[in-house]
Design brief:
four-stranded mixed beta sheet; alpha+beta
């Protein structure tokens, strides 16, 4: 059975009142809060103003010209090659002031047919001690059907510089450059050959 709480007697109540009157409160008496209105309840807190210069994501990044073409074009690769020949002669060649001593036109040929023809032409030019020859590839037709794998524009125009940088032609080729407009422009290459020793 639970005990009933015993109440304080009158003497105990008077004693407690005297003790309470002689003591100081540790904590001040709390005031009743004003009733809170919904407008004040949902106000966002005021943030301190911080003065910083305006910043935009990517403002210092360099813009990329073409996001999908990761490899540089063949014209960019050929133009980026260092000049291995005499600079004055190279300048004349680029401006179309030098006439090619021989030329070959690979228009309409397949890769399988064009490669041996180019090999034979360059080796014959080396044997004949020619210095500047013109290789006409054409600009190529755009045949991309929109499939998942992109197709290069102008297959021969892309392949010819690779072939000229591979053996057995590499040892004979001193410089490759895109031809001047009067000799074919983007659809042809000047090939400057080394002297036989």
């Amino acid at each position: 059975m639970a005990r009933r709480p015993r109440g304080l007697s009158e003497d105990e109540k008077m004693l407690w009142k005297r003790v309470a009157d002689n003591t100081e409160r540790m904590h001040p008496i709390r005031k009743e809060k004003d009733p809170v209105s919904p407008e004040t309840l949902f106000q966002p807190p005021k943030l301190p103003e911080v003065k910083q210069p305006r910043f935009r994501i990517g403002q210092t990044a360099k813009p990329r010209s073409n996001l999908h073409d990761l490899a540089p074009t063949m014209a960019e690769q050929v133009a980026a090659q260092h000049v291995a020949m005499d600079r004055k002669t190279f300048g004349k060649m680029k401006k179309g002031r030098l006439s090619p001593e021989a030329r070959i036109d690979l228009h309409g040929m397949t890769i399988a047919r064009a490669h041996p023809v180019l090999l034979r032409f360059i080796l014959d030019a080396v044997a004949a001690e020619r210095r500047l020859v013109l290789v006409i590839t054409g600009k190529g037709k755009h045949r991309d059907e929109g499939g998942p794998i992109p197709v290069r524009h102008g297959v021969l125009r892309h392949q010819v510089p690779h072939w000229l940088h591979m053996p057995p032609l590499k040892q004979h080729v001193l410089q490759i450059s895109e031809a001047h407009l009067k000799h074919g422009g983007q659809g042809a290459y000047y090939v400057y050959l080394r002297r036989l020793r």
